[in-house]
Amino acid sequence: MSRDGRVHVDKPIENDIQGRTPFHVAAQYGYFKIIEILAKNKKVNIIREDKNKQTPLDLSRSHAHPKVEKYIAKLIKVKEMKFGGRNNRNDNLYKHEL
Fold first, then answer.
1. Rounded to two decimals, what is the model's pTM?
2. Contact 25, 1 (CB under 8 A)
3. Would you state the pLDDT for residue 65?
4. Contact at 8 Å (CB) between 34 and 7?
5. Are 80 and 48 contacting, i.e. CB atoms less than 8 angstroms apart?
């Protein structure tokens, strides 16, 4: 996210002063289409925590966006099934690939 508040799809790993990425912000505000677009970028870490230890899934839940919540949960579930769960958690595994 740039200083002027715009989300740059080509730079999805930039974060704001709270440590939120554009993926976090889209989840918080329920921007489903943006979540879909960002999830297609291989650099997006779908379980990254911000400075408050909130993941995009946490934010979608706490701000009552069930469609976004279900989509992110599905992305995480697919990753866990593919790579054997979170016991050997490696955040790189959660960078989403479509």
1. 0.71
2. yes
3. 96
4. yes
5. no
